[in-house]
Amino acid sequence: MARTRTPVVTGWFTGEGDAFRLLGTRCSACASVFFPREDAHCRNPGCGGGDLKEVPLSQRGRVWSYTDGRYRPPSPYVSDPELPWEPRTLIAVELAAERLVVLGQAVPGVTVADLAVGMEVEVVAGVLGEDAETVWTTWQWRPTGSQGVTA
Amino acid sequence: MTGDVAVLGVGMHPWGKWGRSFVEYGTAAARAALADAGVDWRDVGSIVGADTVRGGYPGYVAGATFAKALGWQGARVTSVYAACASGAQAIATARAQILAGLADVVLVVGADAAPKGFFRPAGGDRPDDPDWLRFRVLGATNPTYFGLYARRRMAVHGDTVDDFAQVKVKNAALGALNPYARYRKRVTAEEVAASAVVADPLRLLDICATSDGGAALVLSSVEFARRHGAAEAVRIRAVSTVTPRYPTTVLDLPDIATDSAVAVEPAPETFRASIARTAYEEAGLGPEDLSLAEVYDLSTALELQWYEDLGLCGAGEAAKLLREGATAPGGRIPVNTSGGLASFGEAVPAQAIAQVCELTWQLRGDAGDRQIEGARVGVTANQGLFGHGSSVIAVR
């Protein structure tokens, strides 16, 4: 039986393959961008407040920093306690156009040895985990290879 | 100075993993602080408790919980929560009451009973809570953020993992001298390097543990202290509890992203630097006036970050300051003379209060083998989840 593919959070990303994008919102009055999305009020204290419209974020950015999790994170992170914990790499990525930093998991197989601050990465669709009925989808960062990988 | 309040008494319950209730630790610390102050609990006009989310419902109303344990006597009560900055908010609340004339003597208490392993968010399915989301969506524990900051320092400033290890070596040597510390053994750089990686580039001995512990202060007006025969008491001259300014540029716990700087140019100083600057301005003092500092070394690398945020050195110069020995006993500005979180582990609502206990002992000349000669001015610095600044300046 096919499991349903469901985003782990609603409204934070959209699309498949090359069309995959993170979704934020942009204030129509001051142009501030928000991720995770703000849908009620602009958080710029100097802004009178405008409509917040959904906007796709840049697909590519540069590594601000990175680390990994060598130990199993606690709940509500979901992992199979029957399986050994496989370390996950996390990357904080600076998006130049939006001037913000977004944290995400790296695609499976990318370790800290493959990364360097300043390296270009792109956002791709990924799988956070699976259970009996659902494949939980998320965003992941993948080096574009256009900068020298250090490993 | 008219904004001063006096520290009449300080008390702590030793940090550890004792397996008992936070109420017991807090009450023991409170009794110790009252005895140190020479004040009868029944003469305390107000009690402020720093809450612990891990203590269940009584932890959320810590002020009343401690008041009941000490024996109801009708005091005004306040309970505050600001994550790691809870203790500073409790001190700020007590100070405001004293300066407003609402109370002459206020008891401030914080205590925690910490679980084993990583801190985790409260239970339930809560996709509207950023703290829940970072665990659910990313598996981002607190050490994830410490690892990101450490790697960023290595890339931008050239810090090395050995610099980080030397922070642990320094703090462990001081903790060995502190009877309230949980870890009282010296540690070598080799031992740090041999410990397991938790969040690259940080290892187990780079990251602070989670602990049980309790700390308390008896604060009063300067006038009350004079009448009480404590005219020379240590004084709190500044309490900074500021929030960040939009847009933030450093990924802060528990956030998944920073603010966007597209519409508003970020302030030239980071949030952490603004916490210290606010305290300095309130006290009319600067980093050059300090005898010592107690900073929140959640990780070894974060201690180095605080050197720069407190203005002890310029941006990128923290590792050099450490290597020169300036932040060790006998140096220009000793940091974490208590042994820091490296030696205590974090007992969240007690920790910012414990920092002020250490300043008080140092400024009184009562710090025993850890004593910094001629200490006159001390600063604490800390930052609570969700954007809570915390810094206290004490003088004698």
TrEMBL record, chain A:
All copies of domain ChsH2 rubredoxin-like zinc ribbon, residue ranges: 20-52
Coiled coil spans: none
Domain of life: Bacteria
Annotated protein name in UniProt: Benzoylsuccinyl-CoA thiolase
Automatic annotation (TrEMBL), chain B:
Parts of the chain that traverse the membrane: none
InterPro entries named among the record's database cross-references: Thiolase, Thiolase-like, Thiolase_C_2, Thiolase_N
Start and end residues of each Thiolase N-terminal domain: 22-111
An MF annotation (GO) of this entry: acyltransferase activity, transferring groups other than amino-acyl groups
Protein name: Lipid-transfer protein
Superkingdom of origin organism: Bacteria
Domain Thiolase C-terminal as annotated: residue spans: 276-392
